[in-house]
Here is the input.
Amino acid sequence: MTYQRVLLKLSGEALMGDLGYGIDPKVVTDIAQEVADVVAQGVQLAIVVGGGNIFRGVKASAAGMDRATADYIGMIATVMNAMTLQDALEQIDIPTRVLTAIAMQEVAEPYIRRRAIRHLEKGRVVIFGAGSGNPFFTTDTTAALRAAEIDAEVVFKATKVDGVYDADPVLHPNARRYQSLTYAHVLAKDLKVMDSTAIALCKDNSIPIMVFNLSVPGNIVRAIKGEPVGTIVGGSCEVS
Here is the structure.
């Protein structure tokens, strides 16, 4: 394996599959099986999951809700997703721990950096819930922050597309996919790989970001093996 300790960023929308809202059990089961394949290779895996399939703080704020309140509700939604993913993993005998940035001791452990690292060293999958515990920060930023804290070698951003393009491939059929990008190019062109705070954190800590399509079976393992399944941010600018 190219990487030994990785952080996987899953959007909440990834868990709802083709549903318009909520969680698709089949999608969660498929993701759990892919994670099991990764763990079987001896890779230490941490996951940050979003909550957009249940509640989006930014959208609620735009509708008039207090932004901080909306973001806290969104954090709670991420914990619901984290617990669902934990259950799916433990159904197939993958030891998993949910660590939350907001204390919820009845259902999850509090986030403590050394504890998270110890769980990883023992071969447990660690799922970080409740974002960073602070409003006004996205789960993308949480992924970059936790990756730096646990000394992850890479952040995998699992999406619905097979990488980063120079234009929207849905609207522009001739759009070209980047094989690799610099952090500066992503920020300058506002390519929406992750939010700017997350990109800056990864840049400052020299953590590459791999963007790939989660819906292709086996892509997580391929990415960890270093196969070119998407776009890597942190290299030079190259297009397909």
